[in-house]
Amino acid sequence: MRKGLIKLVKTSVKLVVLVGLGISAWYAYQIYIPVEEDDGLGELPTAISVIRDITMSVEATGVLQPITIVEIKSRASGEILEMGVEIGDFVEAGDLIAQVDTEILDQELRQVQADFENALVRFEVAENQHERSRALFGESLISENDFESSEQIFSTAQGQLLRAEASLDLARERLADATVRAPSAGTIINKTVEEGQIIASSTNDVSGGTTLVQMADLTRLEIRTLVDEVDIGQIQSGLSVVSKVEAFPEERFLGEVMKIEPQAVVQQSVTTFPVLSKIDNSAGKLLPGMNADVSIVVHRKSRVLTIQNEAVRTPSDAVEVAGMLGFTTVEKDDVSGGARGRGGSDSVDQKAQFESASPAERQRMMAEFQKGANKANSDPFGLDGRREYAVVFVYDELGQIMTKKIVAGVRDWQNTEVLEGLDPGEEVLLLPSTSLLRNQDRLRSWAQGRSGIPGLSGR
Prior knowledge:
By secondary structure, this protein is an alpha+beta fold. The chain has helices spanning 2-21, 25-32, 103-138, 144-177, 315-325, 332-336, 345-356, 359-378, 434-448, and strands at residues 46-48, 50-66, 69-73, 78-83, 90-91, 96-100, 179-181, 186-191, 198-199, 211-216, 220-228, 240-245, 248-260, 265-267, 270-280, 291-308, 388-395, 401-411, 415-420, 427-429. The chain has a 6-stranded antiparallel barrel with strand order 2-11-15-13-12-16. Helix 1 (2-21) crosses helix 9 (434-448) and helix 3 (103-138) packs antiparallel against helix 4.
């Protein structure tokens, strides 16, 4: 039987090549016919069930960008005398960014300082006169009008002193604003001015002032990826993220999902949702603008028995493959029953069992139910409890191909978890897919209707 299967594969491949090249019917006959014995093609491809970690993830691509970009502007206007940074420099909080010309500000400060000193003198004189007037008025040596007049002069001098003091504080602040310093630690990612350039104040100019530099904290970056609406239901904040970039193909950078933006993005009739993930860049290798491939880890199971996805077939697919290849078929009813979904007949059976149980048994069942609920809360997508029946093909003791029913759990892009039916190290076959076999049958039917080529009427 194995030789017959090998013959089928080999003859089908040869037939495809012959038809594609347009070789004559007789030459096709000469090459197609001599497949009677196993001429060294070897065993069919197999896979071994092994213990490994299995990870379910959603794949996407995105561009690295800073989480927060800070624009540095000067609240003072004038000529730039000194620029203390360049693009790519790392600065600490308080480091010099730029120095604006302070000649006019120095003059304003000296003037305001003089006004303050004059106001202070007037206040002190008015205060002394007011105290003397209070004493004289208490001894009835001056009239009430004279006392009120001195009190008014004192109040006016006091107000002038407060205004002069406020003006002095503002002048000092404007002078300090001419020296622009970093508000926090970060990296300069853009620089828009140079020494000698005249800049506008960010507080007095209607346009918002001139941006000096842009800086960002590059120890943490974010990736904005577009996830298909089919997969977005599996994404939630806090999931682990593994990303890689072309600059460092052998390294993986870890992070987590920050949030899912609620507004969908529709491009060419495909609906996606933006997902923002933060990536640890404490090593400083990643740079804004790099393209990144992102894997959002939806579920991970450690040390489970797995087999390659290509070896696992649904019950109906197994029946079709067995029929096409001509060996013992599988009864579909034997392999399709068993694993019941949530809310199915299992729920009905459990309800009847609960109603007929004793009080003590009911209490035990409730405790198990609560334990299961707690587990479901730790597994929000319900993947730990995923079970479905499937079929694999194996060799029996006589070397014949047989089917074997298994219970499959979660799967990733390469492997499927095997809950029941296989042991570690067990060998299973990797047979052609049903689509390939159907294409071979269609090709054979087409070839049989072409010129009556000998040898194409049978397998």
